[in-house]
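ERR on first pass: missing label on line 2. Operator R.T. fixed the label and resubmitted. Corrected input:
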Amino acid sequence: MTGFLTGLLRLKRGPWEMLATILIALGVVMLMQPFFLWAYTWSFLVTLVGTVMFIITSHFPE
Amino acid sequence: MSAYSVTEPSKTSKWAAALLVTLYTVITLLPLVWIISTSFKTGPDSISYPPKVFFDPTVEGYVNLFTTRTRPAVSELEALPPPEGLMEEIARRQGTIITGPSRFGERFMNSVIIGFGSTALSIILGTLAAYAFSRFKVPLKDDLLFFILSTRMMPPIAVAIPIYLMYRELGLSDTHLGMILLYTAVNISLAVWLLKGFIDEIPREYEEAALIDGYTRFQAFRKVVLPQAATGIASTAIFCLIFAWNEYAFAVLLTSGNAQTAPPFIPTIIGVGGQDWPAVAAGATLFLLPVMIFTILLRKHLLRGITFGAVRK
Amino acid sequence: MANPIDIAARGTPPTLARKVRGLSDRAIAWIFVAPTIFLLLAINIFPLIWTIRLSFTNYAANKPNAEVKWVGLRNYERILTDEDIWSNMTTTAHFLIWTIFFQVLIGFTLAWLINRKFKGNDILTTLIVLPMMLSPAVVGNFWTFLYQPQIGVVNYIVEFFTGIPAASFSMLGPGGLAPWSIVIVDTWMWTPFVMLICLAGLRSIPDYIYEAAEVDRASKWRQFWTITVPMVLPFLMLAVLFRGIENFKMFDMVNLLTGGGPGSETLLTSIDLKREAFEKWRTGYSSAYAIILFVTVFGLASIYVKALNKVKER
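pass 2 clean. output:
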């Protein structure tokens, strides 16, 4: 866990990509879950942030 | 060494596996067998209950597929001169007379023209790009490759909205050229990714030897790389062709008359009084059969094709 | 995006490069890649930018002369608070989850069985794969024939095996079966896809790993869970992601099977989008809808490419 956090701080690709992946997955789940309308409403923003983050962070050094 | 290999399954387990897989194969092929058999049934046979497994085969479905017919009153029908030719006779047997050819032939030809046109174009462009990606250091290579692949993932309906507007402005709606360009744009990603994989496997030494022998880069590409990549190019072409052949969403939204392909047309085949299932099945059979043959030809490269070249064996 | 001029080539060693006559490598790379990039910019990126622009307006494609108003984020706001569209998303989720579940279950089992390398397994594999290559539209259309109420073959088979009267239910009609009927057809079509990829995963496991496990006296059950499953997992992920993306944007097969009906029981998002865009002609609104679907697919696609590269390294 600390490795993950220091990776984030040092702008390493691995942990940031992982974070972006989690955001995208979360956004997709929020979009299609049948329970909370608010989650559906905000899902697009979460996916968008995750996707943009993925594109940017895939250029970070390994 | 032990007497048996641990990774070699026992005889009984092989038998059980063979049995189960065969069972699945039979079940999974049933719908396809049903399509083909329905195409040789008469209208009443096709919708009889319980469904008929054994029946007198007829080519009524195929005749109906290629013709339009009317159903005159019985007295009128009896007053007609005897039927000329086999098609007329088969139509007469159903109490109808042929009034002209149907549009199926045209639609099928559209599928052929658009399929082959877009395949040729995507292979030409794809081979060039794949060669460049494989052999040269292209800046932002990974980003470009990802961009190319992501274009294939776009939802077709989402793409169709602006394309519809754009084609309307450019006069490309419902034209063969418009559909060829569109299918090329979708197929080119697959072509680039697959062909890059195939070209990566050709040793660079061949070209370098040719370059030392005084070939230009372009000559080396044409005379050394292309012949080596022939199998790869052929199987990529079949994949592109199958995609263009099967495509429905763009075809149904962007074409209506002139350039409509077969997939949006087949479901609209209506007989005299309700859907003419033997004719639909006949159309489906003629349409699906080439793909089945190509799939069997392609079996060794299938995995590569469906994973954009990532999984080789 | 990359400026095409930046697409340089520095691949050839300098000694060789000097001997090359004609165009430089840099020029060749430029000439070779440019047409592809240009075509994709024209047919994909330009329309995409146009869609983004339209998504902030109330433009209607069937009224090209009407005044176009900027509505800001209102289209997005309306879509993302619309309970009907939300329920279409959950319908899509139902389709997605169950198709993937059945395809992974059946596909993996088949691959595992075929991997016993019994005689004739390659012929059976080729036959099993057939449905996947066929036109979803034509096949979907024909399934409506198999699914006909009362006289359909499927109803007959169900009556034959279970005794439930064939006239008492309808696969595509009212009664709640339609969402399952589309799952069945998709599973029939795409199980071979998952099977093929799993088979590749199973075949990539070297024999010596099992031999070592045997030496350690690990049970077959343990070997399956500690060797087979983890080794196939990256491949399985690939298959699941790809099927997920494909089924999230599913249109052709289901449009012909049910057209979204009965009611809105099988109204997947793509079919709903088609209605908004090409039947109600709310172009601005549906552009926003399209962008939402597109961003979701694009996000999933980036994960997919990551998974793809992972498998490639094997």
